Amino acid sequence: MDFDIISFFSSAYDAFSKSNFFFYLKIFSAFVSILLINDIILILSKRIRTDWRIVFYGTPVMRFKKSKYNPRWESIRRRVEEGSVASGKIAIVEADKMLDEALGKLGYAGKDTAEKISTIRPGQLVGIDEVREIRQFYHRIIEDPTHEIGMDGIKAAIAAYERFFRGIELID
Predict the structure, then answer these.
(1) pTM of the predicted model as reported, rounded to 2 decimal places
(2) Are 98 and 165 in contact (CB under 8 A)?
(3) Are 134 and 152 in contact (CB under 8 A)?
(4) Pick from 50, 88, 38, 77: nearest CA to 171
(5) If pLDDT is split at 50, 70 and 90, which confidence band does 66 have?
(6) Running DSSP on this structure, what letter comes out for residue 32?
(7) Distance between CA 94 and CA 12 in Å, rounded?
(8) What is the DSSP string of 55-106?
(9) How many CB atoms lie within 10 A of CB 59?
(10) What is the spatial distance between Cα 40 and Cα 166, in angstroms, rounded to a whole number?
């Protein structure tokens, strides 16, 4: 009696692959595979969205309520557009208060804006280096309200604040 093991396994496989059980097993496997692929896509999309913001900004960035900050920023811009130096100085002070509030909401700790800015690494947030330089105007205005500053300096300071606020998506 010759027993061919290869033909035995071949016929068993053929019988199994043509059975109803194997058909339902394939359908169940396809369903589970689709669910798992869908879960993987959802998990990766959430992770990429989070990681992209960290990569782009260098830190987790919260989403601000622009409806709160846009009107404040528009009032600051209107002060600058008035053309008077006094209104421009007030605009710089208001912009710095807005900066302090934004940095606090971003999670930077400190008693004042200077301490919060000192914890930020250079290049970590868009425009932070310009804001560090432009805060000299703020300090001069606070220390000596009679300090002479031209409208060009005021507009440059407000433009630096605006670049920073747009960079962290605080305003539109």
Answers:
(1) 0.63
(2) yes
(3) no
(4) 77
(5) confident
(6) H
(7) 82
(8) HHHSS--PPP-HHHHHHHHHHHHHHHHT--HHHHHHHHHHHHHHHHHHHHHH
(9) 16
(10) 33
